[in-house]
Amino acid sequence: MKSVKLFLILLVFSAVLVACGGSGGEGTNGNENSSTDDGKWAEVQESGELVVGTSGTLIAASFYDGEEESEDQLTGFDVEVMREVANRLGLDVSFEVMGIDSMLTAVQSGRIDVAANDIEITDKRMEEFNFSEPYKYSYTTMAVREDDNSGIETLEDLEGKKAGGGATTIFSQIAEHYGAEVVTYGNAPNEAYLRDVHNGRTDVVINDYYLTKFGVAGFPQFDIHLHPDLKFHPTEQGVVIPKGADKLTEEINQALNEMREDGTLSDLAIQFYEEDASQPPEGDIQEIEGLDL
């Protein structure tokens, strides 16, 4: 009888161990730390607010619709996507405006909960962060001087050119990959980047197709245009989430999937980009080999 009781005790104990070990199974990004997972989502739920980092300087994605730089005037595709995500999660939302170079660090430090600023999902970044499913698809192009395309007809022509950009962006990595000198800025508006191409301080701004299209259109007084021939480096953009926050990732993904299914995501994309950026672009887009992304 004693042996039967001992067997039952050991059986229950083993079951508890298996359950504890299994509770940290693979989440959205393969992280096995369930305490981090549950803790971040619980923290956001307890506060009742999702704090989102964004720049406020990217026309169509994150910008101020008016001269007053207040949260009421902050809008754009990424901003409105996150407002809708928070609403569907039953949360308030607030935005911390900062430069892209400090945004990812702010996610890691916990200063903000997530970041949404047309940020590309890459393998290297996924080693340090969780990402949502893509909510935007695009590719990369250039703003160049209209009279001569800044002397750039191929990507190889970037060698020796000056490219305006953020210090840690994928676009600056592409410029450096082809031998361009990157001229860095702080959290500067589109106007500063594009004016410098116009006046010859720099030669090119490499950036997302949609953002470049609207940036160029916003300053018709500048001698710049969207490069007519170069389409390269297809991209997917997502919400940046702390590494291991798998429950928060799951909840954001669920909201984004609902928005995709009911057409909200497409409607917002067309509202801000005049094209459905929530769907992959059509046509031939050149892949770039040798980038450590």
Radius of gyration: 22 Å
Number of helices: 10
Total strands: 14
User: Which residue ranges are poorly predicted, with pLDDT under 50 across at least 5 consecutive positions?
Assistant: 1-36
Query: CATH superfamily assignment of the largest domain?
Result: Periplasmic binding protein-like II
Mean pLDDT: 87
The CATH first-level class of the largest domain comes to: Alpha Beta
Q: In the residues, how many domains can be counted? A: 2
Q: Level of helix content?
A: 25-40%
Ends distance: 63 Å
Strand and helix order: HHEEEEHEHEHEEEHEHEHEEEHH
User: What share of residues are in beta strands?
Assistant: 15-25%
Overall, the morphology is: globular
Report on the structure:
- With 293 residues, this protein is α/β, with parallel strands linked by helices.
- The chain has helices at 2-22, 34-47, 77-88, 100-109, 123-126, 170-177, 190-199, 209-217, 246-261, 264-273; strands spanning 49-54, 57-58, 62-64, 74-75, 92-97, 114-115, 129-131, 136-145, 162-165, 181-184, 204-208, 224-226, 232-237, 240-242.
- It has two domains: 34-135 and 238-273, D-Maltodextrin-Binding Protein, domain 2; 138-234, Periplasmic binding protein-like II (D-Maltodextrin-Binding Protein, domain 2).
- Strands 8, 11, 12 and 13 form a four-stranded antiparallel sheet that branches. Strands 5-1-6 form a three-stranded parallel sheet, with helices on both faces.
- α3 packs across α9.
- The protein starts with a helix and ends in a 20-residue tail after the last helix.
- Mean pLDDT is 87; it is low at 1-36.
